[in-house]
Amino acid sequence: MRLSQYFLPTLKETPAEAQIVSHRLMLRAGMIRQSSAGIYSWLPLGFRVLKRIEQIVREEEDAAGCQEVLMPTIQPAELWRASGRYDDYGAEMLRIKDRHDRDMLYGPTNEEQITEIFKAYIRSYKHLPKLLYHIQWKFRDEVRPRFGVMRGREFLMKDAYSFDLDYAGAERSYRKFFVAYLRTFARMGLKAIPMQADSGPIGGDMSHEFQILAETGESKVFCDKAFLNFDPLQSDIDYDGNLKPLVDRWTGLYAAADEKHDPAKCPVKGDQLLEARGIEVGHIFYFGTKYSAPLGANVDGPDGKSTTVHMGSYGIGVSRLTGAIIEASHDDAGIIWPESVAPFRVGLINLKTGDAKTDALCADVYAKLRQKKVEVLYDDRDERAGAKFADMDLIGLPWQVIVGPRGAAVEKVEVKNRRTGERAEMSVDQALTKVAG
Ligand code: ATP
Ligand code: MG
């Protein structure tokens, strides 16, 4: 993509309305535009990142044996009346009437909808477990939408649902998501720590929030420093095997958000306890028959008797992750994208547009990168070098290839790594090898 043709409305000034760094940087990098409070349009650069995050989430859900569906954003109120949540949900739910005066709503979540689908088709334990997910926009009329996409009113969520015959089955499904989440966040370059969360009236310990550590997190969190050495991507996962030892390893270490942390009872002492702030990027939750019972989702068990299925739900804040990744990965100059979610892998900077040799070398590098299927944003604008460097640092592509007249004369380019700041001059071939990965 040539930057001269790309729709990238970067801002030099810091927008006054943004309180946290990710919101400021997303606005300055031309990723999003506010439509109304907590509701955003995604501009080309932001949309590319959102899609890449979504794709990682999708791949890891698929790997865990979860199947993708797509449910609507607008749901009929009667489903929610059946579960008893229509009145309980309160002001966060956006209620709508259609032209026939029927009550509808913009879904804040999909437990009822997925249970209705399950119930319509699945009648026997032989078809269990079933794990289904979708990636769809949600609406919650949050009291205080803030921090840009981190707490929006309209936001993109991956929500998955599990259906099992009994508690033991639900536990196996829960562990699949637990492990898939560790991998999902690690692939985005994040350290996500599972923390025991409130499980409501059902009780039990099958509720975890996944928090990533960042200074601007909404909640204060405490955890064992040993977490920082865990790497969820080390080994391949057999999702049909026994995941208990792996999950136990993670849940065996202390981690708690503020509400749950009791210094008197905390088993981690002194220096080993990490005190930080966290951003909740995911939540997994077993809730038994809370929805399957009122909605009548039953199957025939092995003994021929009808039994109510056990369910869990598993959310990931896809649009929130865009901001959360920036909170965890930036410097004074701008965003530093992890390679896995970067909107482009390489930024090619032409330091002197109009200079024949420089233009030719840039064209050569650009063509070769495209041939290798390396995603590249080529700054071919007629701008000062300083402005080009600033924009490229701001948008945070992992690699920069810088071409100026002095280098062009000897067929050399400079390669800069955005994260480390390391720069080195090299031949075009060497540069291609370095940035192609
Ligand atoms: P929170 O406590 O942050 O309001 P929640 O408990 O309401 O979150 P869930 O219903 O579990 O959230 O939703 C699953 C995930 O969706 C959350 O872990 C979070 O990452 C994301 N999410 C929830 N609310 C919002 C929002 N208003 N804007 C963006 N993402 C959100
Ligand atoms: Mg909420």
Brief overview:
The protein is 31% helix and 28% strand. With 437 residues, it is an alpha+beta fold. The strands form six sheets. Strands 3, 7, 8, 9, 10, 11, 12, 13 and 16 form a nine-stranded mixed β-sheet that branches. A five-stranded mixed β-sheet has the order 20-19-21-22-23, sandwiched between helices.
User: Radius of gyration, rounded?
Assistant: 24 Å
Query: Low-confidence segments, ≥5 residues, pLDDT <50?
Result: none
Number of strands: 23
What small molecules does this complex bind? adenosine-5'-triphosphate, magnesium ion
What is the helical fraction, as a range of percent?
25-40%
Largest sheet, in brief, is: 9 strands, mixed
**Helix count, per DSSP?**
13
Outline: globular
Structural class: alpha+beta
Q: Strand fraction band?
A: 25-35%
| Straight-line distance between termini | 19 Å
Average pLDDT for all residues: 96
